[in-house]
Amino acid sequence: MAGFIGKERHAVDEKGRLMIPARFRRRFGMGDEEGAVESAYRHSEGLYILKAPDRSLELYEPFIWAGTRKTISALSDFNPEERLLKTLMYESLEIVELDRQGRIALSKEFLEHAGITKDVVIIGADTKMIIWDPDRLLGLLEESAGRFATLAGRYF
Fold first, then answer.
1. What Rg, from alpha-carbon coordinates, does the chain have?
2. Number of separate domains in the chain
3. What is the distance between the alpha carbons of residues 38 and 24, in angstroms, rounded to a whole number?
């Protein structure tokens, strides 16, 4: 079953809250075979939001983030590179709650990281949602326009 697919434009309100598109909210928990009871539990656990290195934000459901958490937890605290990666990952991560209106509150730190002041583009990327400032996304797309065929040829 397909995950989050599509692109929508929304705005962050004056309190830093972002409405998650209804079509994405309807997908919550559908990729997990454990059913509706487990889905209700996951919503109470919150969603994981990550400051991505490309200056976007990535939003994950708990059951998707669980695989990444397991990989991070397996890294050694005694290996300096692995310990650094753990620190960098967890420094860039927060848990946000979905309110009754389908909004999440983004911290000032996360908004500044992504350069978000008002409008956002939310891209459904199968197992996650990617949140971009529209101007940054447009710049990335324009800068990378000629690379699509090369990248697709390399990986597909």
1. 17
2. 1
3. 18
Q: Could you tell me which of 141, 99, 105, 143 has the C-alpha nearest to residue 123?
A: 141
The separation between CA 52 and the C-alpha centre of its own chain, rounded to angstroms, equals 8
Backbone angles phi, psi at 73, to 5 degrees: -65, -30
**Cβ atoms 39, 150 nearer than 8 A:** no
User: In which region does residue 115 sit, left (phi positive, over 0), alpha (psi from -120 to 50) or beta (all else)?
Assistant: left
DSSP bridge pairs for 7: 123
User: Could you tell me the pLDDT band of residue 41, with boundaries at 50, 70 and 90?
Assistant: very low
Enter the pTM of the model.
0.86
Domain that holds residue 56: 4-155
d(CA 78, CA 84) in angstroms, rounded, equals 10
CATH of the domain at 31: 3.40.1550.20
Whether the pLDDT of residue 43 is over 80: the answer is no
